[in-house]
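Page 37, continued from 36.
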């Protein structure tokens, strides 16, 4: 039973799902855009948005929360140094553009990118 379990399972166990979402969030923040499946993009979006919100705050506590969530100090330092590009925006820091089905298994593919 899945009572009180939040989030999608994504075909893996909980630890693999958590690791995959963490690596996807790091990839989006490091490269500004990634190509992935639609369900993965929808699932990683809250983590990316939360990290950008922490970067906009810019205090030590927010930096430590971001490092704890992502586990990558270099990416956290990059996003905290680029926080000015998100200053005029109250939310919605990511965009998901649909590409169509993947050739092998017809999974819906998207490009997820940070909005300037």
């Amino acid at each position: 039973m899945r009572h009180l379990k939040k989030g999608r399972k994504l075909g893996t166990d909980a630890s693999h799902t958590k690791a995959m979402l963490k690596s996807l969030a790091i990839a989006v923040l490091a490269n500004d855009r990634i190509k992935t499946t639609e369900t993965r993009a929808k699932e990683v979006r809250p983590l990316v948005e939360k990290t950008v919100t922490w970067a906009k705050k810019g205090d030590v506590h927010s930096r430590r929360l971001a490092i704890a969530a992502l586990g990558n100090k270099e990416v956290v330092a990059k996003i905290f140094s680029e926080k000015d590009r998100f200053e005029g925006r109250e939310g919605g820091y990511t965009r998901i553009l649909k590409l169509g089905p993947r050739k092998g298994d017809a999974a819906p593919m998207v490009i997820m990118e940070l909005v300037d």
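Strands lie at 33-37, 94-101, 108-114. Flag for discussion at group meeting. The radius of gyration is 15 Å.
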